[in-house]
């Protein structure tokens, strides 16, 4: 039997809103990643720094969204939401999820 995630629809909606509200910034993040990947040795460090800054920004934004909603939930239920949110971000934004997991 298939088990539906309790917060799946909510989290999908949260991530859609995040992507819509921050489309320009997410595009800038993708462009920074491409600049880093295409950088020569002299430019690689600066390019990576720009990319890392964008990843950090996105992780902070998602952590604020995640934590604000989790704070409205009862103990125990919030843990389930946090696990489901983390899994969804790992699927949608794996490069951001690595940092988000540390926040």
Would you mind describing this structure in some detail?
The radius of gyration is 16 Å and the shape is elongated. The protein has five helices and no strands. It has helices at 8-21, 23-38, 41-70, 77-92, 94-100. With 103 residues, the chain is an all-alpha fold. Helix content is 81%, strand content 0%.
Give the tags.
103 residues; 5 helices; 81% helix
What topology emerges from the helices and strands here?
Elements: H1 8-21, H2 23-38, H3 41-70, H4 77-92, H5 94-100
Helix pairs in contact: 1-4, 2-3, 3-5, 4-5
Mean pLDDT: 94
Largest sheet: none
Counting structural domains, the number is 1
Distance between the termini: 34 Å
Radius of gyration (CA) equals 16 Å
Structural class: mainly alpha
Helix run count: 5
Q: Give the overall shape.
A: elongated
pLDDT < 50 runs, ≥5 residues = none
Q: Helix content range of the residues, please?
A: over 70%
Number of strands: 0
Q: In percent, how much strand structure appears in the residues?
A: under 5%
The sequence of SSEs as H and E is HHHHH
Short description:
The protein is mainly alpha-helical and 103 residues long. The chain has one domain.
